[in-house]
Structure formats: structure tokens, C-alpha cells
Amino acid sequence: MEKAMSDFVYYNPVKVLFGRNKISELGALIPDGKKVLITYGGGSVKRFGTLDRVKEALHSHIVGEFGGIEANPTYSTCMEAVERFKEGRYDYLLAVGGGSVIDATKFIAAAIAFDGDPKDIFGQGVGKGLPVESAVPFGSVLTLPATASEMNETSVITFKEEKAKISFSSRHVFPEFSILEPELTYTLPKRQLANGITDAFVHVIEQYLTYPVNGMVQDEFAEGLLRVLIEIGPDVVDEDNHDYALRANYMWTATLALNRLISRGVPGDWSTHGLGHEITVLNNTDHARSLSAILPAVMVVRKLKKWDKLVQYAEKVWGITEGTEEAKIDAAILKTVAFFKSIGMPTNLSDVGVDEADIDTLVRQLKDHGNEAISERGDQTLDVSCEIYQKALDLNF
Ligand code: NZQ
Ligand code: ZN
Fold first, then answer.
1. Of 3, 4, 25, 170, which one has the greatest count of Cβ atoms within 10 A?
2. Cβ of residue 195 lying under 6 Å from some atom of ligand 1
3. Separation of 166 CA from ligand 1 center, angstroms?
4. Which ligand 1 atom minimizes the distance to the CA of 148?
């Protein structure tokens, strides 16, 4: 019988307000009388006037601020925000920032309402992995298109002591709304623009590059998103190019890349993210840079496992129609690496400061975090992950 997609539920209640000057609508989005704690990062929203615009739009609400959420947000910083929220008797959260601020706010929202030790919201060797039953309502104003955190139910938190970067997901931590103003990307430096394009690219790949199950819409959507990222990537990373249409396409593509639309009913392989998180834990490499340093090696080492989809990727995404199947696959891997390089991203581990002596540590971390049987078939053992890290050390095309 023909393979078919598996059964699924698709639920996504996030109201997206996309376009120019949407921040001005904030006052109407948050119910009257709510006392709002605005969360933000290291100060870019202050520097570039976004926080002032947000406060102006919320002039009829009582608001407070919690700044200082770091990139790769930590558990301890989030817990400080939980205290601030409770002491100040707030009842609504508003995240203004990139994936780190939105992820942190999701955890803060869940931790405030959690009955017990909030660490237990996380599994993978850090806590008990207990379900989240409720969370404080929150919205977001997105300043960095990359993670799609603005339209999904996942949060990734870093635990410094445990040397871990762990996610949790819950339907209670979807933002109630997210404001997407493409013009907010105009202040992003090249490094973050390249990170955003890359993170979105790898998100699509990890929901696509597995084995075929005849998910026609998922495949076509995924291929379309990849083609758009390849087309616009080099222009987006030009930080001086403030073309509205270009940035609008960048922003919406990144959101669609991980709002779960393309993952339902088809297998997924989050091994590049799994291996990448351990690099960030090790030496604080930017999330997306950890991904581009690993993905080419995943494609090389897992070629046989991903054969059919790699051929499809070569043909449908890169337009490679000549040669044997293997020649198409190899050409597609080369094109992927060239694309990352063209937008200034690292493509091997040396580029992100990891050397041979670190690999044991990375593999041990994977083990500590329960990542011993990952990928679309659960057959990526620690040995295979070790082989991928080894391959990624000095992969040079
Ligand atoms: O902290 P500030 O001063 O605001 O500066 C930030 C930060 O330094 C800056 N920035 C953000 N918007 C800006 C800006 N600078 C100028 N103009 C703007 N408009 O950019 C830097 C990076 O921000 P961050 O939020 O850390 O980046 P990103 O959005 O890439 O988020 C990365 C985090 O998201 C997690 C990652 O693991 C990482 O912790 N992820 C979350 C996912 C999810 N929720 O589904 C999935 C992803 O795979 C990912 O794991
Ligand atoms: Zn990611």
C-alpha cells in the first residue's frame, strides 16, 4: 500500500498581526485593567526605540519592565522575572525581543502558575518533565525573525550549572498574539540576519529531510520555504538593504518555518538541533551557527538513511536534474554548504571553536540529556552522533 501521512492534530491559536505600525494596536490586544510586565533582552529594544513605542501604545495600562534576558536565556534569570512578577502583582506578560526573550517569557509564564519546583517542567536529566497545566497569558512583539517562537508552543532554556539547554512544549505557552513588523528587522546586524535565515532553513530541513510518507502539501510547502530562503538570504544579510518587501518575506518565512504547519503527519529529525545545543552549552556559540556547523556532516553521514529525501531535495529545492542519484545528492550537499558560506555562516566545527578534544565532552553531554536514540527513526546512537561530530570537525568543501 502507498505510504501515507500519520494521523495528527493541528492546533495553533496565535493571533498574528503582521505589517507596519502594528505595535500601536497593543492597547486593544491586552485586556483592559491588566497589569503588564514587559520582558526584554540586553537593551536593543531600548536603544532602537521599540520599548518606548510599546509603552506609548500601552499608556492606558499599568506596566513594569524586566530587562536583561540574555541570548540563550538562563533558568536563573527567568526565575528572577518570576519573582518580579509575583512581587509586583502583575497579571500579564509581554515579550519584546527575539527567540530568547519569547522563550524566556514562555517559561516565566509557566513557572509562575506551576504548582511545584519549576525545574520539573523540564526533563532530559534536569527535572521530572512534568506537564504544564496552565500559564499566565502573554503576547509578543518580535524583533528577530529566526526561531518562530512567536507562533509555536516551545521554549528552550539554558541551565548553567547542569550544562544543559533543554526545551519544553505546552499548548498553554502559545502567545495569545504576536506582532510582526518587518521594519523592526532594520536594526539587526549582519550576524543576526544570517543567523535568522539559517535557523529558519534548518528548521524546515529537520521537518523535511527524513523519509518520504507522501505528505504532498508538507513537502511542497517545505521546498517552497527553502527556495525562498535561498533566494532572499544573500540580500537579507545586507544590513543596509532596508527593502520592506524583502524583510517582510524574511519575517513571514521564518515564522512559517516552525509554526508546525509543515511537521504535522510527517517524520522529523531534530538531531542537528540536538547536537548543536551541546555546542552552545560548551562554548556559547550562537544557536544558528551551531546548526550550520553540523548540518553538512549530518547530510554526509546519514546519506543512506535520508537517500530518497536527499534526491528530492536536490531536484525540487536546488533544481539538480542531471546525473545519478548519488551525484545529485552530493551536488545538493555542496550547494547547501555554499549557501551557508555565501551568507557568512560557519560550516564546520573548527569555524565555531570546537576541536577534537571537545568531542568526548559533547557526546557525554548528549548522553546526560538522554539523546541516545535520536533522528527520524530513533537510530542515531551516541556512536553515530560521535561520527557526525568527527566528520564536522574539518569538513571542507
Ligand atoms: O538582547 P538584545 O539587546 O535585545 O539583542 C539581541 C541579541 O543580542 C539582538 N537583537 C534582537 N532583535 C534585534 C537585535 N539587535 C538589533 N535589532 C533587533 N531588532 O539579537 C541577539 C540575539 O537574540 P536572540 O533572541 O538570542 O536570537 P534568536 O531569535 O535567534 O533566539 C535564539 C534562542 O531561541 C532558541 C535558541 O535555542 C536560542 O536560545 N530557539 C527557540 C526555538 C523555539 N522556541 O521554537 C526553536 C529554535 O530552534 C531555537 O532553539
Ligand atoms: Zn533553531
1. 170
2. yes
3. 16
4. 45
Which atom of ligand 1 lies closest to the CA of 69?
1
Residues 6+ apart with CB under 8 A from 4: 213, 214
Total tally of structural domains belonging to the chain: 2
Evaluate whether residue 220 is within a structural domain.
yes
Instruction: Give the domain-ending residue among 184, 199, 214.
Output: 184
Whether 252 is in a domain gets the answer yes
239 in the same domain as 116: no
Q: Is the CB of 166 under 6 A from ligand 1?
A: no
* 352 and 243 together in one domain: yes
Over the range 14-23, which residues count as b (16 or more CB within 10 Å of their CB) and which as e?
bebbeeeebb
pLDDT in tens, the chain (397 residues): 579 999 999 999 999 999 999 999 999 999 999 999 999 999 999 999 999 999 999 999 999 999 999 999 999 999 999 999 999 999 999 999 999 999 999 999 999 999 999 999 999 889 999 999 999 999 999 999 999 999 999 999 999 999 999 999 999 999 999 999 999 999 999 999 999 999 999 999 999 999 999 999 999 999 999 999 999 999 999 999 999 999 999 999 999 999 999 999 999 999 999 999 999 999 999 999 999 999 999 999 999 999 999 999 999 999 999 999 999 999 999 999 999 999 999 999 999 999 999 999 999 999 999 999 999 999 999 999 999 999 999 888 7
Task: Tell whether 359 and 287 lie within a shared domain.
Answer: yes
Ligand 1 centroid vs 94 CA: distance in angstroms?
16
Please report which ligand is nearest the Cα atom of 97.
1
Using a 6 Å cutoff on CB, does residue 173 contact ligand 1?
no
pTM: 0.98
Whether 259 and 309 share a structural domain: yes
CA of 341 to the centre of ligand 1 (A): 21
The H-assigned helical ranges of 38-152 are: 44-47, 50-57, 75-87, 99-113
Cell of 51: 520599548
The two most distant CA atoms of the chain are separated, in Å, by: 66
Domain span at residue 162 reads 15-184
